[in-house]
């Protein structure tokens, strides 16, 4: 199997088939990240598609093919953040203080977190970006990224434990 870096280099040279392979390789991860950021699967799928289209159009601006994953993470994050519905329209549980039923999975509980917390969790644990790359994508300091990740993990842990106690 050809490496992502080689595929990116071929795509930069105009090879559409190589870019199609990149899309196939990264699409599940991109949708998962965008879903977590937007809080809505359909909006996340559309954001991921838009991110791939944007990446294809702007691929010439990528200086180092080995940096594609981080670069694409930034593109995806920006598009997903713009696609995010206004807070009042987000697909969140009607009452976050209501018990989270036992059959809810951890990713479903994560969708109840704030958008800021979902963003950093998705970029760190779905896209596996470094603190520095997350900071660049979100326009934050590295210290703030670490702090926000800690807050997000603690909130997620508390809600998960609460759901286990209440079930």
Quick synopsis:
The protein is mainly alpha-helical and 167 residues long. The protein has eight helices and no strands.
Which features would summarize this protein structure in a list?
single chain, 167 residues, Butyryl-CoA Dehydrogenase, subunit A, domain 3
Largest sheet: none
CATH architecture verdict: Up-down Bundle
**Broad CATH class:** Mainly Alpha
Q: What percent of the residues sit in helical stretches (DSSP H or I)?
A: 55-70%
CATH-defined topology: Butyryl-CoA Dehydrogenase, subunit A, domain 3
- What is the residue-mean pLDDT, rounded to a whole number? 84
Total of domains: 1
What does this structure look like?
This protein has one domain (4-90, 98-166): PhyR, sigma-like (SL) domain (Butyryl-CoA Dehydrogenase, subunit A, domain 3). It is built from eight helices and no strands. The protein has helices at 4-12, 16-38, 41-58, 68-83, 106-110, 115-126, 131-138, 142-166. The radius of gyration is 17 Å and the shape is elongated. The relative contact order is 0.12.
């Amino acid at each position: 199997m050809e490496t992502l870096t080689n595929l990116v280099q071929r795509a930069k040279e105009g090879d559409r088939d190589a870019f199609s392979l990149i899309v196939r390789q990264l699409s599940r991860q991109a949708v998962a990240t965008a879903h977590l950021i937007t809080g809505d699967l359909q909006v996340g799928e559309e954001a991921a598609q838009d991110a791939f289209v944007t990446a294809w159009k702007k691929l010439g601006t990528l200086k180092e093919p080995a940096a594609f994953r981080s670069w694409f993470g930034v593109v995806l994050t920006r598009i997903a953040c713009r696609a995010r519905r206004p807070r009042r329209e987000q697909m969140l549980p009607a009452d976050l203080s209501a018990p989270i039923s036992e059959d809810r999975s951890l990713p479903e509980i994560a969708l109840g977190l704030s958008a800021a917390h979902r963003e950093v969790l998705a970029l760190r644990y779905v896209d596996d970006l470094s603190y520095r790359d997350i900071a660049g994508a979100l326009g934050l300091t590295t210290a703030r990224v670490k702090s926000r990740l800690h807050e997000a993990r603690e909130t997620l842990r508390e809600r998960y434990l609460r759901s286990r106690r209440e079930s």
